[in-house]
Amino acid sequence: MKKRFGYVRISSKDQNEARQIKNILNAGVNERDIYIDKQSGKNFDRPQYQALKDPSRLREGDTIVFDSITRMGRSMDDTLKEYRWFVENGINLEFIKEPMINTNSETDDVILKAIQQAVLVILTAFAEKERSDIRVRQAEGIEAAKKKGTKFGRPLKSLPEEWDELYLQWKNGQIKAIEFMEIVEMKKSTFYKKVNEYELLNPKRSS
What we know:
Helix content: 40-55%
CATH architecture of the largest domain: 3-Layer(aba) Sandwich
Mean pLDDT: 81
Strand content: 5-15%
Number of helices: 9
Strand order of the largest sheet: 2-1-3-4
Number of strands: 4
Distance between the termini: 57 Å
Order of helices and strands: EHEHEHHEHHHHH
CATH class of the largest domain: Alpha Beta
Largest sheet: 4 strands, parallel
């Protein structure tokens, strides 16, 4: 019998996976078949992801549902390799936010597959660039804070990958605080704690 699995990934322990789980449950996946990792998407050395790929569990014709391609991975080359591995092994992939790259092991439409590959390359390239840009901006913020004599420990490293861009959107009035919290999957108390830590390290951005 073909099964539907779900995979959830959040970038830090301060994030909340509830939104992704809700979306995957709405896509018809049983809660006991959802696998969750709380770590970066820079590579695929993640315990729950690897457990899901175990041949004794995942079989030809099964489906894995992701909230987004970025939840699968942030590295372009590695994500493309993983995507192709699933296709070659007859595993169907569903991406709630990017249905145009969903796969179907029962179709032989060459043109459709070529289009999907092209779109996939673009999406994974943007995901990797976004991660790279965020790391650069974070490094610049740390360096600026050091020059000002600011002392800090680990808080910045635990921020979600998309934090920097979302913070700017929030400050510019493009999104509301509640939308920001929902996207980064944080509770109100955790959210404002992280905002304060971030602004201490990036004083120019908070002005």
